[in-house]
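Batch job 17 of 40 flagged for manual review because the log was empty.
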Amino acid sequence: MLEFKRHRRLRQTANLRSMVRETVLKTEDLIYPIFVIEGETNKKIEVASMPGVFQISFDLLEEEINTITELGIVSVIVFGVPKDKDEVGTSAYCEHGIVQQAIKKIKQVNNELVVIADTCLCQFTNHGHCGVIEEGIVLNDPTLDLLAKTAVSQAKAGADVIAPSNMMDGFVAAIRHGLDEAGFAHIPIMSYAVKYSSAFYGPFRDAAHSAPSFGDRKTYQMDPANRLEALREAESDVLEGADFLIVKPALSYLDIIREVKDNFSYPVVAYNVSGEYSMIKAASLNGWIDEKSVVMEKLISMKRAGADLIITYFAKDVAKWLNEGK
């Protein structure tokens, strides 16, 4: 008789499989993105390219936070959709900007919820780029001052974590210095350390109204072909003071998540981006796949790759499914 290993012995029942499961997804792993619109009331607008994801007006924020809290989600990341935009994204660092207002409101509704502030200018500039523009070029160093101002204003509003997503060189150092100088040395930075110039971002730009009006973001976001560059970017951010490292997108970059996890002893965050969400939603709505099974398999793959946390538009659905299984 042939000699071979009987791996199937550990797969015979659901309970046996659960006992030997190596990777587990928990509600506490999930970070839910919220889009808050300025200057509107009683508005809940579904993003056309992201079925099930909504822009909500400020007055509906309390209801949304209560729903998230009841589901057991412990963290949200806030994106603003401002009423006014200008060349330098003034409303990003305005004390009464939509993100700052939303942070204050969320903390009033549930002070225990971890509120992460996305820190970028692209939603607030009239050209849609993540920095100051001169003759069609995004200027690095002048942008750093505005990013630091934005982070400080978000911390003053009550943000628990600052998440800069702009990919300017030195952005973590500038924001860390700004926060420390303003008395917010205790506020951690969740850096978009490894952010690729990806075709998977299209639906997000519909949600946040942040598509660039000219050109693209390839001079500051990373080439999808590069692996070693990801490690250099993550190393810079660690040296400059980052406390979390985000890899964005997630699904096509599981190898990068694993490399970042293996090389740095910091929490790794996978950003399950809008295009990844919309593809599954579209396939599910057409009856081509089982949405729940595909989503859970996808998120488990991110955790297995090394992610400690996952930013995902599926967070509320996943929380419901996990709660049903308890």
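Reviewer: the log was empty due to a logging misconfiguration, but the result itself is present. The longest strand covers residues 30-37. Unflagging and moving on to job 18.
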